[in-house]
Design goal:
This protein is mainly α. Helices cover 63% and strands 0% of the residues. The protein folds into two domains: 39 residues; 136 residues, no CATH class. The chain contains seven helices and no strands. The model has no long low-confidence stretch (mean pLDDT 73).
């Protein structure tokens, strides 16, 4: 019942705004009603939410943030045994590096995409509150923390941190290649020493 009333009220405000394009108060009332409805989009019924088809993608984009401390694939920190520690640390490092690489590739794709309407600027101008769906879209279109980058020095620091993570990734990758070759050698010649990863 309430949703029907809201739909009729909004329709009446839209019709009034279209009929009186020079009446600022009518225009503001209509815009306010639309924005108030938009704020409640997360509780819209199934198949009626904006971006619903993309919710799983948006959740994934949120989780890809390399600044998050919780790993993407490993749900929580597990207390490893002495022998597992290096392998679990490698998995956590790979997890973070994978997020960095995916985020970088998405940033580059967004940076080279054909420019369209700057909906982000429009949303900011309309004072639409931050929400997970918009935050993920903004992140995809503008890159992680781009709004916070206020100088070349900040960007230089960010890029150096990314390169450091990738260097760690390369080091662990080489160790894993060595371990795999040792395992293969062990299969070919059973007396070969046990393989492992450096701590």
């Amino acid at each position: 019942m309430l949703s029907k009333w809201m739909a009729h009220d909004l329709a009446a405000k839209i019709i009034a705004a279209e009929a009186a394009p020079s009446d600022d108060q009518v225009q503001r009332d209509c815009a306010r009603a639309i924005l108030e409805l938009w704020e409640h989009r997360a509780v819209f019924p199934h198949e009626k939410r904006p971006f619903e088809r993309y919710e799983s993608i948006l959740r994934t984009l949120e989780r890809l943030d390399p600044e998050l401390t919780q790993p993407f694939y490993l749900p929580e920190a597990i207390g490893p045994t002495k022998g597992e520690g290096p392998w679990l640390n490698a998995a956590i490092s790979f997890d973070k590096t994978a997020r960095i690489m995916i985020t970088y590739v998405l940033d580059q794709a967004a940076a080279h995409a054909e420019e369209g309407v700057d909906w982000d600027a429009l949303a900011s101008a309309a004072k639409i509150p931050a929400a997970p769906d918009l935050a993920a879209l903004r992140r995809l279109l503008t890159g992680p923390g781009r709004e916070a980058l206020d100088s070349d020095a900040t960007e230089r620091k960010r890029l150096k941190a990314l390169l450091s993570e990738l260097a760690t990734f390369q080091k662990i990758s080489r160790q894993i290649v060595h371990a795999l070759k040792a395992e293969l050698e062990n299969l070919d010649h059973p007396s070969a020493p046990d393989s492992g990863i450096a701590t």
